[in-house]
């Protein structure tokens, strides 16, 4: 009898504990979503504009912006100030030698290039980018390409010019 009562007591306490923990986790997730939404609402998307189309950066993927914010926090580098290419019109993409199915294109809006001043900074950005969840990373001597294009192969790094292996590959 006594052990049956203890079992019921433990089950009741366990259920109450799980209910409280679930409530706290859900509340925390909702608060995070609200904070992300507020941060995105106040964000200046013009930094992603194609040079030949004012306002074109408004289409940039929210997932990309949030990961870039994490990258900036993780590294302490002014990642948004270093963006050299965001959204591109088809004309601008051809002008800079972008591939025809570029993730930068206004039809996609899922990529940025970040200019770097040293190879050490480049390597730090590449490794930190993987840590914050980027799964597509292009590695050049003067910039790092980051994208969140879900329609392309994931967990890949490549070098420039096209076809060369990356100088640093965080996925191997």
Can you put this structure into words, describing what you see?
The model has no long low-confidence stretch (mean pLDDT 90). The N and C termini lie far apart (59 Å). By secondary structure, this protein is α+β, with helices and mostly antiparallel strands. α2 (62-75) packs across α4. It has 2 domains: 1-42; 45-159, 2-Layer Sandwich (Muramoyl-pentapeptide Carboxypeptidase, domain 2). It has helices at residues 2-41, 62-75, 90-95, 119-131, and strands at residues 83-85, 111-115, 136-139, 143-147, 156-159. The chain has a 5-stranded mixed sheet, with helices on one face. It is built from 4 helices and 5 strands.
SSE order and pairing:
Blueprint: H1 2-41, H2 62-75, E1 83-85, H3 90-95, E2 111-115, H4 119-131, E3 136-139, E4 143-147, E5 156-159
Parallel strand pairs: 3-5
Antiparallel strand pairs: 1-2, 2-4, 3-4
Helix pairs in contact: 2-4
Contiguous low-pLDDT stretches (5 residues minimum) are none
How far the N terminus sits from the C terminus, by CA atoms, comes to 59 Å
User: Helix tally?
Assistant: 4
The secondary structure category is alpha+beta
Beta-strand percent range:
5-15%
CATH architecture of the largest domain: 2-Layer Sandwich
- The total tally of domains equals 2
What is the CATH topology assignment of the largest domain? Muramoyl-pentapeptide Carboxypeptidase, domain 2
Regarding quaternary structure, how should these chains be classified?
A: single chain
Strand arrangement across the biggest beta sheet: 1-2-4-3-5
Shape: elongated
What is the number of strand segments? Answer: 5
Give the class-level CATH name of the largest domain: Alpha Beta
Main β-sheet, in a few words?
5 strands, mixed
């Amino acid at each position: 009898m006594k052990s049956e009562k203890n079992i019921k007591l433990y089950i009741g306490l366990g259920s109450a504990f799980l209910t409280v923990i679930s409530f706290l986790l859900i509340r925390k997730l909702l608060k995070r979503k609200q904070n992300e939404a507020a941060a995105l609402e106040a964000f200046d998307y013009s930094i992603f504009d194609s040079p030949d189309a004012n306002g074109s950066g408004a289409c940039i993927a929210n997932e990309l912006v949030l990961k870039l914010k994490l990258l900036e926090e993780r590294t302490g580098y002014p990642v948004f100030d270093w963006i050299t290419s965001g959204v591109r019109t088809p004309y601008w993409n051809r002008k800079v030698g972008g591939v025809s199915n570029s993730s930068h294109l206004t039809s996609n809006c899922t990529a940025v290039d970040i200019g770097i001043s040293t190879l050490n900074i480049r390597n730090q950005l590449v490794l930190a980018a993987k840590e914050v969840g980027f799964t597509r990373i292009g590695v050049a001597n003067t910039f790092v390409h980051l994208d969140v294009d879900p329609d392309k192969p994931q967990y890949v790094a490549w070098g420039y010019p096209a076809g060369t292996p990356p100088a640093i590959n965080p996925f191997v």
